[in-house]
Predict the structure.
Amino acid sequence: MYKYILFDLDGTLTDSAPGIIRCVQYALEKSGKGSYPDHELLPFIGPPLTESFQNFCGMSEDEAHAALEYYRKRFARVGMFENSVYDGIPQLLETLRQAGKILAVATSKPQLYAEKILEHYKLAPYFTTVAGPGFNGELPTKADVIGEVLQRLHIESDAKTAAVMLGDREHDAIGAQQNDIAIIGAGYGYSSPGELTAAGVSQIAAKPQDFAGFLL
């Protein structure tokens, strides 16, 4: 049974779509890319934003970094709190903590923002550590972030069977696989139909409460 449980943030702990989409719209408009219907911007939730700006909008690397700065300007002011905790998450975290599990957050969101969001929604006390990219290119991929969490928790190769990643996008699955730990999908998050299965995820929770059946 798993002892170490790593949570993604967006689409797993919190429904962050409103703030992320509004900040992406702001960045695209400031970058001269016009506006898009909200539903077309859902793929931005989860992966690193510079990657999404390049893949979705055909931006160059420099253009993507400039768009990211526009995004962060609005996100730091208002976007990070255009957000809500999924029903059942506080109860799940309390149950896992009472069962002696060690909980952590591994997110593609900058660590500083993730910490502020968790503190705002009173989730921070449940987590031993929170890891995410820095503002200067540190931990650029989800695999890097997961690896950082494993290092902070002193999980060596022979203990990785006791660790699992919970996340809603293929990046979570790929990052977990690259670090040789298990993955359980958050089917209620922002993945497209079949995305998690195609990424090799065989266990998927339809709602937060369903994670308990896989973890306890």
